[in-house]
């Protein structure tokens, strides 16, 4: 087990700011207002800016040599007539092998879209989505690629992101204030994803039949505390410690579509991001972090606007920092 020390945080921070987002681009692109109506986790729901539609148009599809049909900003909207549109069809070999988590080809298989289909939730957080030739249409518009890509489900693929935070403190316990902003510095638990090497919130996919609150706690335990490898008695200890934090009123900072590079015209990522804050620093802050499952490394990282993180995760942190009146 790797002990958590506060000394290496600064060096990790420097290293992180050197990592660029592989699909980084401007904020242009057609996008629709993201609806957050009410929080599942707290009476307070925080509105954040809509998800851009930029990474979902990255030229080369992740994990492949497949190039998307280029979609300019003014052609993203499905309602803009574009007869020349000829998206590339791509479903990754891992998905074509029909693992349990993936849907088969549409045709003989015709799921109940826009509804709870058995234990698979095919409803979008953004409301009803359209179908074309029996396939769901990405609610944020054209991506230049049709099929499932790397995603298991046609339509929405639901994830959940637990943002676990604490105040950065010196060894005597006082909170650290940033020299520029004079505001207290927050730290969050970050993992380095094995699939793309980017730092991220330790989120993951909602399993069929699972409640989002369960996914949040399970993913955090698996990726940041390596609960899958722990002995039954250790696992019980870990669960006890974190259940308290995850049962506390989390702050929902996002719910909706994610501008993810894996998105296609017919399959896309959605997430619910919830902040669980260890105000006193003596709850989850004291648990030894250990990377597990899809995570290569895990660390407490200073929250700062210069971080480079996976998908929309930087925006989630910005919302958390502003809500908690922390340095950004
Ligand atoms: C990740 C989440 C992320 C979501 C959308 C999932 O695979 O585990 O952290 O928010 O994809 O990008």
Key words describing this protein structure:
alpha+beta; Nucleoside Triphosphate Pyrophosphohydrolase; two-stranded parallel ribbon; 5 helices; globular; disordered N terminus; binds beta-D-glucopyranose
Summarize the entry for a quick read:
This is ADP-ribose pyrophosphatase, mitochondrial. This protein is α+β, with helices and mostly antiparallel strands and about 325 residues long. It has five helices and 13 strands.
| Structural class based on helices, strands and sheet pairing | alpha+beta
Which percent bin holds the helix content?
10-25%
Outline the low-pLDDT stretches: 1-50
Question: Which kinds of small molecule does this entry bind, naming each only once?
Answer: beta-D-glucopyranose
Helix segment tally: 5
What is the CATH topology descriptor of the domain at 9-64 and 158-323?
A: Nucleoside Triphosphate Pyrophosphohydrolase
Count of beta strands: 13
Order of helices and strands: HEHEEEEEEEEEHHEEEH
For the sheet with most strands, the description reads: 7 strands, mixed
CATH class assignment of the domain at 9-64 and 158-323:
Alpha Beta
Structure explained in plain terms:
InterPro entries: NUDIX_hydrolase-like_dom_sf, NUDIX_hydrolase_dom, NUDT9. Hydrolyzes ADP-ribose (ADPR) to AMP and ribose 5'-phosphate. Monomer. Interacts with GLOD4. It is an enzyme of class 3 (hydrolase). The strands form four sheets. Strands 7, 8, 9, 10, 11, 12 and 13 form a seven-stranded mixed beta sheet that branches. Strands 1-6 form a two-stranded parallel ribbon. A two-stranded antiparallel sheet has the order 2-3. β8 (186-193) and β9 form a beta hairpin. The model is unreliable at 1-50 (pLDDT under 50). The two termini are 30 Å apart. It contains five helices and 13 strands. The protein is an alpha+beta fold. Helix content is 16%, strand content 21%. The longest helix is centred in the last third of the chain and has 16 residues, at 232-247. It has a domain at 9-64 and 158-323: Alpha-Beta Complex (Nucleoside Triphosphate Pyrophosphohydrolase). It binds beta-D-glucopyranose. Beta-D-glucopyranose is lined by residues 159, 161, 200-201, 203-204, 258, 260, 269, 271, 311.
């Amino acid at each position: 087990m790797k002990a958590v020390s506060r000394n290496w945080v600064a060096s990790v921070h420097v290293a992180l700011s050197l990592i660029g987002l592989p699909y980084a681009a401007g904020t242009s692109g057609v996008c629709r207002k993201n609806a957050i109506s009410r929080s599942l986790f707290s009476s307070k729901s925080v509105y954040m800016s809509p998800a851009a539609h930029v990474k979902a148009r990255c030229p080369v599809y992740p994990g492949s040599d497949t190039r998307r049909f280029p979609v300019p900003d003014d052609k993203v909207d499905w309602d803009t007539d574009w007869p020349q549109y000829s998206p590339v069809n791509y479903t990754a070999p891992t998905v074509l092998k029909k693992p349990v988590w993936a849907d088969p080809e549409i045709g003989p298989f015709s799921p109940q879209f826009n509804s709870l289909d058995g234990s698979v939730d095919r409803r979008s957080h953004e409301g009803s989505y359209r179908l074309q030739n029996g396939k769901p249409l990405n609610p944020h518009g054209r991506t230049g690629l049709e099929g499932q890509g790397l995603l298991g489900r046609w339509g929405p693929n639901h994830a959940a992101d637990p943002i676990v935070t604490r105040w950065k403190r010196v060894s005597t316990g006082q909170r650290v204030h940033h020299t520029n902003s004079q505001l207290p510095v927050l730290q969050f638990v970050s993992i380095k994803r094995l699939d793309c090497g980017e730092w991220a919130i330790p989120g993951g996919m909602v399993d069929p039949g699972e409640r989002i609150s369960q996914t949040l706690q399970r993913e955090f335990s698996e990726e940041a505390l390596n609960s899958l490898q722990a002995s039954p008695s250790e696992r019980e200890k870990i669960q006890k410690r974190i259940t308290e934090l995850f049962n506390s009123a989390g702050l929902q900072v996002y719910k909706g579509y994610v501008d993810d590079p894996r998105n296609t015209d017919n399959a896309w990522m959605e997430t619910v991001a919830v902040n669980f804050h260890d105000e006193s620093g003596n709850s989850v802050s004291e648990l030894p972090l250990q990377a597990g499952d899809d995570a290569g490394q895990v660390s407490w990282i200073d929250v700062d606007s210069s971080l480079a993180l996976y998908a929309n995760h930087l925006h989630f942190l910005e919302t958390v920092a502003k809500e908690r009146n922390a340095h950004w």
